[in-house]
Design brief:
The protein contains seven helices and four strands; from the N terminus they run ααβααβαβαβα. The protein is α+β, with helices and mostly antiparallel strands. Helix 1 packs across helix 5.
């Protein structure tokens, strides 16, 4: 496997919305989840849960729940990352339920994106979806919140980098 510098992965990763029909072996999907589970989490609570979707019918329903983002269906694998609000709340109360579980799953999601890029795969972070619909489709229990839908596949496009705000606009020293 090719080793990718972390800065290359950070700068080279793109949100991909067109995928080859090529399948992804389960071992590779598990490596993505392995990368996700090494993300930092508040109090090491690890409130994440991952639903791996390969079924064309389920992907179609998720795409509909995601406001018609049909590229979700094209990906050979879709990972739905969920935050166990109850698990975080048990350690940190309301702040755990409303913030830490989201921060923790966001870190896990970023690890999935970077690991996928390092393995020659592409992803897209889909946050625009009807949460209750996704919950029903995947039979996600109450207290566990779907945070992101991540289609994963081999890219069928290669978009150019998008612009970034200059450092001088976003860095504040000592105070805002």
């Amino acid at each position: 496997m090719k080793v990718v510098d972390v800065f290359e992965a950070i700068k080279g990763r793109r949100s991909i919305r067109a995928f080859q029909s090529r399948d992804i072996p389960s071992e590779i999907v598990e490596k993505l989840i392995e990368a996700a589970r090494w993300a930092p989490s508040a109090g090491n609570i690890q409130p994440w849960e991952f639903v791996i979707v390969r079924s064309p019918e389920t992907k179609k329903r998720l795409a509909e729940a995601a406001l018609g983002q049909s590229f979700i269906e094209e990906a050979p694998v879709v990972i739905v990352v969920c935050a166990d609000e109850e698990r975080s709340a048990s350690g940190y109360g309301l702040r755990g339920r409303t913030l830490y579980c989201i921060q923790d799953t966001a870190a896990a999601i970023q690890n999935i994106h970077l690991a996928a890029y390092a393995m020659g795969l592409s992803t897209c972070w889909v946050g625009a979806f009807r949460e209750d619909e996704a919950r029903k489709i995947l039979k996600i229990p109450e207290g566990v919140r779907p945070v992101a839908i991540i289609p994963v596949g081999y890219p069928a496009e290669s978009p150019t980098p998008r612009s970034r705000r200059p450092l001088k606009q976003i860095i504040h020293y000592e105070r805002f």
